[in-house]
């Protein structure tokens, strides 16, 4: 782990950058730490009356306007109650429960696989962020003095689980304890998930991992699709079910059967692998939800297009919300974050519990990890987004985003 030799302050900041997408970080920060500033340029002017009038203007698009594109399923539009009616202490960013109405859209039935990502890379020559040597400027705004970053620490790679961590160093009362169980592995990328010498040859039907948000956006653009909004993701994950914890209902493993690929046992010490998979599983290894979507709970985390803010639900528009104008994560205020959803094979019931349909996570858009991937959506022609959903990316009349470049780190 190259960054271990740099000055402590820089180490802390660099580790924060690297660990920004560590999907098992607890979500207790938003409720307890840095106060959340008001959202600049957001949709605070939206009134509930305005929301109601928007909702009444027409019915959402429910019928598929065309045949399903290959590998995608139609998610009929409708209304639902988004969020968690009974949040735990670490789940305060899942409230308030609020009404959302969405036009119908298509969604990839599975996480994007290594085979699919390979076709994209072969067609375009695209190089992922994990395969690209970082520059000092990439850390501007996140580290007090980027000139203090040693050249030898600027190496291409990605975040992996450090399975050889020393259990005696784990003190879960310390908020930074997860730093001991993750490591930046030089040369780790989607092609070599565990670093040089590893391979995806026998994993072509597994979800692609070590993709940063910007890599996912690049794939979506190539495919003529986009990343789902957080609202689309939760609506789709529910499979038409109201007030449930999981895509299939309220019981995690009915009849003792595991219905998703997560972590059984006490994280991070013991993985009992009761579901059959220690790391990622081939997509479609478990039953789909009622919409025909696989692995909406577990396997790998999935990027959504929204910026993350813990308080967004307090002001979310009703109609086709496209997320806040900018990010704010009280746990790491200097680092912009995008939303991740669904949990992963690293999520256990004694830690992140991110495999619930309402669970929210966030990650640094520039960082990939070995347990985060994505899937795409395709809006229906004629879907009209709520123009009060002020976003840095104003969607066009078809609900597509003019700019899905993953842009700013401002
Ligand atoms: Ca598992
Ligand atoms: Ca997943």
UniProtKB/TrEMBL annotation:
Keyword Kinase: yes
Swiss-Prot/TrEMBL keywords: Kinase, Signal, Transferase
Signal peptide: 1-23
GO molecular function term, any single one: protein serine/threonine kinase activity
Pfam family, any one: FGE-sulfatase
Location of the Sulfatase-modifying factor enzyme-like domain: 70-377
SUPFAM superfamilies: C-type lectin-like
Record flagged with keyword Signal: yes
Enzyme class: transferase
EC number(s) recorded for this UniProt protein: 2.7.11.1
Composition bias type Polar residues, residue spans: 44-55
Region described as Disordered: 27-72, 385-410
Protein name: Serine/threonine-protein kinase pkn1
């Amino acid at each position: 782990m190259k960054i271990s030799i740099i000055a402590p302050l820089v180490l802390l900041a660099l580790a924060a950058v690297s660990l920004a997408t560590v999907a098992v970080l607890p979500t207790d920060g938003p409720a307890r730490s840095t106060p959340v500033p008001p959202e600049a340029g957001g949709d605070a002017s939206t009134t509930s009356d305005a929301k109601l009038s928007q909702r009444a203007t027409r019915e959402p698009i429910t019928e598929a306007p065309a045949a399903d594109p290959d590998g995608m399923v139609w998610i009929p539009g409708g209304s639902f109650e988004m969020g968690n009616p009974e949040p735990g202490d670490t789940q305060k960013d899942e409230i308030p429960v609020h009404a959302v109405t969405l036009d119908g859209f298509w969604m990839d039935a599975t996480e994007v696989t290594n085979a699919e990502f390979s076709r994209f890379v072969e067609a375009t020559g695209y190089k992922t962020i994990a395969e690209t040597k970082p520059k000092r400027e990439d850390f501007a705004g996140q580290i007090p003095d980027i000139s203090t970053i040693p050249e030898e620490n600027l190496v291409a790679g990605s975040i992996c689980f450090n399975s050889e961590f020393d259990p005696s160093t784990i003190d879960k009362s310390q908020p930074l304890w997860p730093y001991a169980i993750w490591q930046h592995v030089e040369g780790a990328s989607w092609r070599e998930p565990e670093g040089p010498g590893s391979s995806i040859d026998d994993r072509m039907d597994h979800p692609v991992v070590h993709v940063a948000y910007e890599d996912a956006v690049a794939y979506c653009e190539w495919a003529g699709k986009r990343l789902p909004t957080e609202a689309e993701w939760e609506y789709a994950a529910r499979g038409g079910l109201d007030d449930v914890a999981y895509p299939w209902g309220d019981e995690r493993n009915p009849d003792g059967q595991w219905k998703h690929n997560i972590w059984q046992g006490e994280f991070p010490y013991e993985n009992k692998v009761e579901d059959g998979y220690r790391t990622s599983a081939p997509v479609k290894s478990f039953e789909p939800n009622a919409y025909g979507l696989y692995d909406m709970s577990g396997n790998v985390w999935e990027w959504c297009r929204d910026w993350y803010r813990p308080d967004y639900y307090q002001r979310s528009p009703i109609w086709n919300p496209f997320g806040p104008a900018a990010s704010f994560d009280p746990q790491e205020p200097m680092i912009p974050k995008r939303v991740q959803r669904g949990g992963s094979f690293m999520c256990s019931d004694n830690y992140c519990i991110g495999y619930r349909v309402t669970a929210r996570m966030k990650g640094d858009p520039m960082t990939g990890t070995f347990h985060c991937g994505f899937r795409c959506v395709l809006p229906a022609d004629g879907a009209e987004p709520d123009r009060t959903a002020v976003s840095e990316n104003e969607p066009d009349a078809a609900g597509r985003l003019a700019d899905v470049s993953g842009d700013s780190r401002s």
